[in-house]
Design brief:
- By secondary structure, the chain is α+β, with helices and mostly antiparallel strands.
- It has helices at residues 11-23, 46-49, 123-128, 142-156, 163-169, and strands at residues 4-9, 36-42, 56-61, 70-80, 94-104, 138-140.
- Strands 2-5-4-3-1-6 form a six-stranded mixed sheet.
- Strand 3 and strand 4 form a beta hairpin.
- It has five helices and six strands; from the N terminus they run E-H-E-H-E-E-E-H-E-H-H.
- It has a single domain, classed as Roll (ph1033 like fold).
Length: 175
């Protein structure tokens, strides 16, 4: 069984990664599938980076002035990267990796540049399922990872446009 982790990130940094995934400005993304983006773990959490490749990753967006925060993305970590310069607008000292997106809350792929349009899964819904959001990255038991996957999948089925279509088409649109 692969490991599963719940990682946190700001709306600004997630938006940055999603826009780069869409426009492929970073050379590391140019030959990658349309649903791969760059994400990162703070370098002080080496215990995660040692187990990262092929692990299940859930991204929880932290609260900001614009949004309340919530579960945003599910994916699979593919490979750890080396960046020569700062990548994200907020924070430093990240260990970057390629993340293959498997599911996203509504609005994220359609409007990567506008977090106000993201329909994140709220913390209260996660708490109803006995999933606590703690500071920093969290290692998840498989049953908790399945619950999060189910929650995101339920939201996917409410979409009128299939995820594969969004990934193939909306990621290529210009901002």
């Amino acid at each position: 069984m692969p490991e599963a982790f719940l990682l946190k990130g700001t709306p600004t940094n997630l938006s940055w990664s999603l826009i780069d995934m869409k426009n492929k400005k970073t050379p590391l993304l140019r030959d990658k599938p349309d649903n791969w983006m760059i994400w990162g773990v703070n370098q002080r959490f080496t215990w995660i980076t040692k187990q990262l490749e092929n692990s299940e990753i859930f991204i929880y967006v932290t609260k900001s002035e614009a949004i309340q925060g919530g579960l945003a993305i599910y994916g699979i970590a593919r490979e750890i990267l080396q960046l020569t310069e700062k990548y994200w607008p907020q924070g430093e000292k990240w260990t970057p990796f390629l993340l293959e997106i498997k599911a996203a809350a509504p609005g994220i792929l359609e409007h990567p540049e506008d977090p106000k349009q993201w329909k994140l899964i709220p913390k209260t819904k996660l708490e109803e399922k006995s999933i606590k959001i703690l500071p920093g990255p969290q290692k998840l038991k498989q049953e908790k990872a399945r619950i999060l996957t189910d929650i995101l999948s339920q939201n996917l089925f409410k979409r009128k446009i299939p995820l594969h279509f969004l990934l193939k088409n909306s990621m290529r649109r210009n901002l």
